[in-house]
Amino acid sequence: MSKIKRRDFLKTGLMAGGAVILAKQLAGSSYSMNRLMQYRSPLDGEIPDIVTISGADPEKNMPKLLEPLGGIGQFVHSGQTVGLLVNSPWKHTGYYTKPDVVLSVANLCLQSGAKEIVCFTPASQEYWERGVLYGKYKSAIQSFRYGSDRIEVEIPNGVSLKKARIYKELKEVDVFISIPVAKHHAGVIFSGNLKGMMGVSSDETNRYMHSPDGDYTYDKHQYLAQCIADLNLIRKPDLCIVDATECALNNGPAGPGNTEKPGKILAGKDPVAVDVYAATLIGFMPDDILTFSLAFKHGLGELDPEKVKLVELN
User: Fold this and answer.
1) Pairing with 288, which of 23, 135, 151, 156 sits 20 to 30 Å away (CA)?
2) Contact by Cβ (8 Å): 113, 77
């Protein structure tokens, strides 16, 4: 059976039984299931590229997740300002980053001596209240600063996107942590770290990224994917943490739609490698996702699982 074509994916999305369908489709794919599974374990003394952990308690699991990467202290030092890029605007579960994942990361940053937490995209009170940890970290949430003024920046190596208006805080923070949810996206199939960067750019820039004419369309798939890859040249995250506890399989970015529960949180420094792994958790084929290959061409990360060191924790 031939593999699912990108155009078909965009028309229909991936329904609830997609993981089973995908396993059958991959038998004839150039990106075989065996290839997807050929991550290697790090040797003694090596730092992994991706760490995953299973479980429903992010507050308990976050320190364990980051330990193989050197712990939060490897990324955040005393007195630093930490910027968090969170996918928070949507209301349907599986289409937004769980607030408890964000709060668990923010808490570790503060424990490591962070001076301030900046959430680039303003999050509503309702968003934070969805989390079990809201009451415990209410005072911390109230201290968060959000993105305010935007600045225009040049993207010298951009192919389709040569400049962008972004929150000025993206350039100002000492540490940049990306915390997306893994989900379907109607324009580029998959949304994670790479697609999530559109959260720092203005509505005007995002309209241009969808279409050079300023139309909010999902029809210009290759153009949008190239613009996303270009946007990621502005600043690469210091740490990527992907919420793959519950993920949307179709009707992204906003939903509603079908969801799958991989029950995992992922961490790593490479936004491409982490996105590739996250996409496979919910049945998406990496060679059908143009943002991955275009970001790889920009030198933003590793595309080949055989070159990626993986640690899976329970």
Assistant:
1) 156
2) yes
Residues 74-93, buried b or exposed e (16+ Cβ, 10 A)?
ebbeeebbbbbbbbbebeeb
* Extents of the domains making up the chain: 6-313
- CATH T-level assignment (fold) for domain 6-313: Rossmann fold (3.40.50)
Q: What is the pLDDT of residues 212-253, one digit of tens each?
A: 988 889 999 999 999 999 999 999 999 999 999 999 999 999
By C-alpha distance, which of 37, 103, 310, 85 is closest to 194?
85
Phi, psi for residue 309 in degrees, rounded to 5:
-95, 125
